[in-house]
Amino acid sequence: MLQLQFLGAAQEVTGSCYLLQVGDYSLLVECGLIQGTPEDEARNIHPFPFDVGSIDAVVLTHSHLDHSGRLPLLAKAGFDGPIFTHHASADLCKILLKDSGYLNEREVEWQNRKRQRKHLPLLEPFYTMADAEAVMEQFVPLDYKVETEILPGVKIRLNDAGHILGSSIVEMWLSDKGVTRKLVFSGDLGHRGAPILHDPAVIKQADLVLMESTYGDRDHRPWNETWDELEQVLLNARHDKGIVMIPSFAVGRTQELLYAFNLNYEKWQLDKWTIFLDSPMAIEATEVYSHHRELYDPETRDLQQHNGNPFMLPNLHISRSADDSMAINQIRSGAIVIAGSGMCSGGRIKHHFKHNIWRRNCHVLIVGFQARGTLGRLLVDGATQINLWGEVVDVSAKIHTIGGFSAHADRDGLLEWYGHIEGRPPLALVHGEPQAIEPLAEQVRALGVERLIIPNFGDRLDLVHMKQI
User: Fold this and answer.
1) What's the pTM?
2) CATH number, domain 223-405, options 3.30.565.10, 3.40.1260.10, 3.60.10.10, 3.40.50.10890
3) What totals of helices (H) and strands (E) does the chain contain, helices first?
C-alpha cells in the first residue's frame, strides 16, 4: 500500500502535516502548530487523527513552528521514532520548540491564576519546555544532496529550499510490492534573490508534487524597490522623530533585516539610529545563522569576508533580559526596535505597541506574512484600535507593509520552480489560503497540468493509481 493523507495546511497556511503509509510502515512529513484565531489554535490540543503509536518516523522540511510545533506533543503522545531534518533545522528547532514550550507554560500559568480565583479546574500546558527538550533527542540531522534510507521502502534526499536556514525541499522515494513512486514536498520555497541563502534547488522529476501556495495570488515587488521603500520609511521616520517598531520572525526575517542594515548602513544613514534586537529567540537564532556559513550564498560569503559577521552593526544593542526590553520604552525618538513575534500575536512587540502605537510620530513596519486572526493582520487591514491585555489602544502610528520582504516564493517563483519538473506531474497545492490557491490553480491549469489537487483536510490519495479515495 502506498497512500498519502492530508492532515494539515489544506487550504490554510499553518499546521502542516501529511501522513504516508508505505506497506507496513507509517511516517509523517511535518507536524506543525496551528496558528491564527483562538478557535484555530484550540485545534492544537485535539487528539491526533491517526494512531500515534503506528508512526515509525517523521520528516521535517524546516524549523518554523507551523511545520514543527507539534513534535513535542507527538512525542508526549507516544511517538518515539526518529525525526529526520537538516542539521541547521535541528539547531533552530532547539530554540523554537523550547520557546514554544515556555510560552505554553506562561499562558497556562496566567489562565490558572484567573481560574483559581473562580474555583475552576486548573489547566495544564499541552507541552512544556522539558517536553521540547526531550523531543530533540529524537532528531537525526542530515546534509543536503545525500540520499538516505529512513525506513524499509522509504528513501529521502534533502535539497536547499532557500526559505530559512536549513529549509529543505524533500525528494522521497516510496516502494511497496514492486511499485515505486517519487514524491516531492516543496516545504516552504524561498523568494528568488533573497539575501543570505541560495535560491530554491531545481528538481527535475517527480510522480507527485506537493507545493506550497502562500503567495499564489501575487508577485513580490523587485528587491531593489523593496530596499528603496524601506529606506524611504526610515528617512520619514527619522524626520518624524519617533521610533520604528518592526515585528519580525525570529528565524529568517530578523537575519534578513540585519543583513540589509549591514549592507546599506551608510546609504540608509543608519548610524543616526540606535538599533535594538529585542528578542531572546531571535538573538539565539542569529547565532545559529552565524555558525552555518557554509549555507550562505556567494554575496553573503563575500560580505562576511570583507565586513565580518553580516548580522552585526556598530550601533546594534542586544536586549536579552526583560529589563533590557523595558528600558527601550523610555526612548521616545531615534530607535529602531526589532522584536517578536512576527505576527504580533505575543512576545515583546506588543509591549512596544502599548507604549508607542498610539503616538502619531511612530512607525510600524510589517515585513512578513500575517495569518488570519492575528494582531498583525488587523494592523495590515487598517484597524484603528487594537486590544492589548484587555485595554483598547488607538492605532495612530503609521503602518507600513513591505511585502517584498517575504521569505516565500511569489506566484511567478512558484510557477517557475514547478515548471522545471519534467512532464508536468500531478500537483497538490497546499499551505495556502483559498484566495491564494485559486488564482495559482488557474495559472497551473494554463500550463497544461492534467492532474491538479486542491485537498481538504483528511483527503486521501492512492499513490499506486494516483487517485483520491
Assistant:
1) 0.91
2) 3.40.50.10890
3) 14, 23
